[in-house]
EamA family transporter
Amino acid sequence: MGISITAASLVLISAFLHAGWNLLGKSRTPSPAFFCIATLSVGLLLLPLGLWVLSQAHSLPRAFWLLLLASGFFQMIYMGGLALAYQRADISLVYPIARALPVLLVALATVLLGQVLPWQAWLGMLLVTIGCLLVPLVYFRQWHWSVYWRADCAWALVAALGTVGYSLADKGALLYLEEALGDAGNTCGGGV
């Protein structure tokens, strides 16, 4: 099965925007307020699209809205943790920790919720996590727990936990939205 040019382009654009956002966040004096304003700006930009999608869904359950609120709460935790970590450390240390740990933590939470993951998935996630945690090191012999047992890494861990929270909340909300959009498409006699 091939990948479409559109999908590949969107992934590349997303990767560059993501990297640019983090470099911009670190190049300024990072603060939770800066991250909040930047997030609200993007939210306002995408608000018309979000309202259009929600207008297509009929009778979203209360659980959807609670998950949406939970996602926003965890997004604030992520942004605050990332801003405070960037204030104390270099992006080359903070970012890999903030992005590596959710790979395993989301998988662990998924398993606790009853889904089974194959061993190959666990191996891949473990290798990604180990690779990300080794990024800040110049030599393997530099590795020691003390490199990571610091306040900046603790804030990166807070950011990672925020990522886990909003990832799980988003997944749950999307399931409700897919169901509601599927019902809307069936009611209108066509797909969305």
About this structure: Residues 187-192 have pLDDT under 50 and may be disordered. The chain has seven helices and no strands.
